[in-house]
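Here is the promised in-class demo. Please do not try to memorize the tokens; focus on the logic of going from shape to residues.
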């Protein structure tokens, strides 16, 4: 039997779009007008940025530098918009989902049918793995990358072919290209890569996608792309807009600090998006996440401020690694560094936790002496630095 909500979700009605097109106006009513030009963006900067300082940290006082979150908290405009919406949570958010998808379609230059909205981007990664599994074929990716696609794929019985990283811990696109063959069902690229933070030179990646997407679907995970020095040079949306079998996934968990609130999206060929929706596994998108996401997109000042904060944060982490005399994956572009500890990473993580700092332990088995450390508030980075110094100088 057909689910009426499903119909509503996949065929946005003009009436619903009109009804919710003014969600930005919701913020406006609270004195948080959407910035329509740079002058108004500048005008909102001081108030917005001033509010974006150290929110409540973990009550246990533990510096959480293990999950690549944004420690500064969400946009004040997002918080205000969510607060205003609290009494409406009895409603499913289908019309809001449509409004959000329409906003994304406009920003990304694709049709609204090409936008798949989910609770964080993890469901898109998993849905893509299932999609490949249903079609058949192996997934080619890099050793030491984000597990979202490969792990779900392997659980479903899809073979994943992992190509080794280059000497300087980058994606080896030549090797990945060479590995694409008759058995390949898709390619997964994480750029910037988690955990290494390495990016692929835009021209090189474009040439790769051009070629690879003529053979198989190519998934580009851009979870951290907006933190890259040369953003938006590395954004690969153009291939989706051109109708290639390319999927670009984004999340509001990172730069928009909504990891706990959950919102993400993927842009892809319309038939692929339809196929993923039809499985019914993606569920409805959370109401407050959509409200916060729409408000966040309008808060240009917040976005710019967070970009700077993430870049400054990773520079502090690099300075820490240099001071500790530890090698790290060069030129990281996310909100984290990948560092060679010279000791077992789980033992290091346990010792760090005992000193009140949480970092990744034994997650990527290929490198048992490397860990990923992400940006925290300034005092947390200092705490991490001091703790790491004590531990690493004792070995
Ligand atoms: C590269 C990458 N992609 C996707 C995700 C999924 O994030 P979320 O489900 O919170 O959107 C993460 C989370 O850490 C990530 O690092």
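The designed amino acids, position by position:
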């Amino acid at each position: 039997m057909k689910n009426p909500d499903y119909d509503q979700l996949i065929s946005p009605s003009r009436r619903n779009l009109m009804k919710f097109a003014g969600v930005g106006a919701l913020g406006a009513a609270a004195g948080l007008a959407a910035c329509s030009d740079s002058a108004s963006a500048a005008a909102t900067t001081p108030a917005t940025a001033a509010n974006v300082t150290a929110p409540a940290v973990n009550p246990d006082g533990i510096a959480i530098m293990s999950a690549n979150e944004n420690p500064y908290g969400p946009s004040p405009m997002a918080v205000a918009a969510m607060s205003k919406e609290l009494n409406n949570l009895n409603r499913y958010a289908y019309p809001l989902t449509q409004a959000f998808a329409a906003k994304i379609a406009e920003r990304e230059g694709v049709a609204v049918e090409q936008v798949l909205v989910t609770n964080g981007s993890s469901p898109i990664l998993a849905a893509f793995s299932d999609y490949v599994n249903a079609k058949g074929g192996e997934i080619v990716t890099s050793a030491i990358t984000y597990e979202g696609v490969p792990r779900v794929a392997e659980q479903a019985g899809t073979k994943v072919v992992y190509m080794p990283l280059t000497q300087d811990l980058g994606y080896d696109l030549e090797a990945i290209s060479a590995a694409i063959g008759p058995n390949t069902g898709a390619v997964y690229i994480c750029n910037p890569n988690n955990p290494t933070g390495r990016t692929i030179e835009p021209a090189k990646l474009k040439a790769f996608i051009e070629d690879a997407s003529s053979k198989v679907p190519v998934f580009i995970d851009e979870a951290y792309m907006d933190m890259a020095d040369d953003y938006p040079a590395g954004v690969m949306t153009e291939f989706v807009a051109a109708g290639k079998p390319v999927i670009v996934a984004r999340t509001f968990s990172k730069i928009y600090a909504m990891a706990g609130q959950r919102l993400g999206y993927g842009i892809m060929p319309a038939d692929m998006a339809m196929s993923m929706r039809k499985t019914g596994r993606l569920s409805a998108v959370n109401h407050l996440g959509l409200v916060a996401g729409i408000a966040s997109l309008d808060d240009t000042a917040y976005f710019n401020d967070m970009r700077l904060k993430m870049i400054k944060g990773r520079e502090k982490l690099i300075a820490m690694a240099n001071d500790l005399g530890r090698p790290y994956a060069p030129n990281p572009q996310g909100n984290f560094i990948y560092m060679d500890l010279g000791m077992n990473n789980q033992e290091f993580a346990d010792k760090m936790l005992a000193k009140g700092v949480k970092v990744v332990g034994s997650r990527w088995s290929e490198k048992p002496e490397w860990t990923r450390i992400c940006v925290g508030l300034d005092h947390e980075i200092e705490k991490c630095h001091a703790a790491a110094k004590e531990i690493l100088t004792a070995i």
